[in-house]
Amino acid sequence: MTPSAATAFTAPPPALLPAEIEARLADPSRLARGAADAEAAEGIRRSAVLVPILLHPEPTVLLTLRAATLSSHAGQVAFPGGRIEPGETPEAAAIREAAEEVGLDPRLPRIAGRLPAMVTGTGFHVIPVVALLDPPVTLLPEPAEVAEVFEYPVARLLDPAWPERRSGVFGGRARHYWAWPHETQLIWGATASMLRSLALALRDA
């Protein structure tokens, strides 16, 4: 079963200024806010994703649409990321994967910290690494891995009405998941959960 896209949304609250985002993400207690809601991070396959925030006057989060030809999670919205290689830190792995997938210059991301780790439905222990980027940023997506790169307004993350809690049956098992509104893309599952952790870190309460 594939859930339907969440397309309807209310007008978002005003966006945080770039300096406000930097200040809030510098607080470790804010970054840990989503820990109580995260699944136990006991997956045996360690991986990391980069959660890139572009500091436009109205900041955005960079997301990708995975290529339809990939063997896993094909056609799904995701953050750049992948396995942590032996001897790598999660930060190094996330930056390396972003360079490979979307052509992000490894010198550009300024690491802000980590969001709570989680386990995906496929057993990956994922560490989300938040990074700040000063635009303009030139990207060159790898077509074999990424069908599209798009930006999601940080202001939408601040709306207390979102994300929406949904349920469905996947592989014969009932699951609950988060979904964020978007005009054309379906943002759900692990990516939506990580966006929720970021939202909790940035919201006033």
UniProtKB/TrEMBL annotation:
Keyword set, alphabetical order: Hydrolase, Magnesium, Manganese, Metal-binding
Molecular function as annotated in GO: coenzyme A diphosphatase activity; metal ion binding
InterPro entries according to UniProt: CoAse (IPR045121), Nudix_hydrolase (IPR020476), NUDIX_hydrolase-like_dom_sf (IPR015797), NUDIX_hydrolase_CS (IPR020084), NUDIX_hydrolase_dom (IPR000086)
Cofactor(s) this protein requires: Mn(2+); Mg(2+)
Residue ranges annotated for the Nudix hydrolase domain, each copy included: 44-174
SUPFAM superfamilies linked: Nudix (SSF55811)
Coiled-coil stretches: none
Family in the record: Belongs to the Nudix hydrolase family.
Protein name: CoA pyrophosphatase
Organism listed in the record: Muricoccus nepalensis
Phylogenetic placement of the source organism: Bacteria, Pseudomonadati, Pseudomonadota, Alphaproteobacteria, Acetobacterales
